[in-house]
Amino acid sequence: MDFSMFMVPYVLAYTEGRRTAAEVIDWDLKLASWADEYGLTGAFFAEHYTIGHEPSPSPELMIAAASQRTSRIKLGAAAHLLPYHNPANLAHRLMWLDHMTGGRYIAGFAPGSFPTDAQLFSTAKENPKMMIEALDIIEAIWMKEPPFRIEGQYWTVDMPAFTTQWAGPHLKPLQRPRPEVVLTGMQAQSPTFTEAGKRGYSPMSQQVSVDVLRQQWDHYAATARDNGYTPDRANWRVIRDVFVADTDEEARRLVLDGAMGETWERHILPTFKSVRARGFQRPYALGSLLVDPGMEVEDLTIEWMVDNFWLVGSPDTVAGKVAKLNDELGGVGEIVTVTFDYSADPEPYRHSIELLGTEVIPRVADVGARATAAA
């Protein structure tokens, strides 16, 4: 099993005037360099425009900067919000990024779920349809030989034939036929997982309960098979927050009294409990995806999540929780941990990443090797 990091970023101090944009950027790049140093597999960067707690309008710039500070890890977007870009322009920027990173780039795409971002770009309720059209255009630019013309509802692309005068069109991805593409999903019957299965993309599950995760995989796998693809659990990424310390007690304290607990308490958990996201019609619909069968949304507390949901503890404890989650899901390829703003006192967080890479990952690998040998 691999482990990656996801820089949303969550920065409550930024909206309160206690962090500058430059400091937010520097912290995320430092996290990427620690991930590279301590043996994690990758780093993902988000795209938001109007969400002050999650300032990150350009994952491409973050990936480009991180590529200059790292040498090994994969660098991806989670995700480029396709309705807010001309897909022909984005397709070329991402091909260039693939070359800039030496083939370490992972393409993550999404329709965008925040209503204020959609308001900014005046996309109304067209985001899901715009994403599908943009995917068709990007795939064509990456893999289809010119000339071709695509006339869509939202964009028209007229790719010219090669000419010796301009020596182009000339650009294709470094990774052939294209970089890995990841789509994220939250609902049990996620529309984005439907699209991932249809196109042979990789699924990335948001932080939801084990019951919902199982349903997500079954839905994705069935769709993939129906469209001629063989679903591979090695390509399944699951987001689950991780914090490792020398002891269980220390890890629990650093979460509950630190940026991770504060961010969930003040921002993420209220969002899960109250926001009516795209496609959800009932209050608490998001929160219900987090709870186990028999629980109520009101039962969700930071203390419960530390003990029962997140992967928090000593290296032995976290490795055990990872193995248990993997068994419950029937196998998963990668755990993606969201990062938090511990920049005011970075050493415990740096140590957490170090322990994850140098202590937890080897333990998880040993468990996997023993299970394979026993089978």
Automatic annotation (TrEMBL):
Enzyme class: oxidoreductase
Keywords: Flavoprotein, Monooxygenase, Oxidoreductase
Domain of life, per lineage: Bacteria
Cited InterPro entries: Bact_Lucif_Oxidored, Luciferase-like_dom, Luciferase-like_sf
MF annotations from Gene Ontology: oxidoreductase activity
Keyword field contains Flavoprotein: yes
Annotated ranges, domain Luciferase-like: 22-325
Gene3D superfamilies assigned: Luciferase-like domain
The name this protein goes by in its record: LLM class flavin-dependent oxidoreductase
Organism encoding this protein: Conexibacter stalactiti
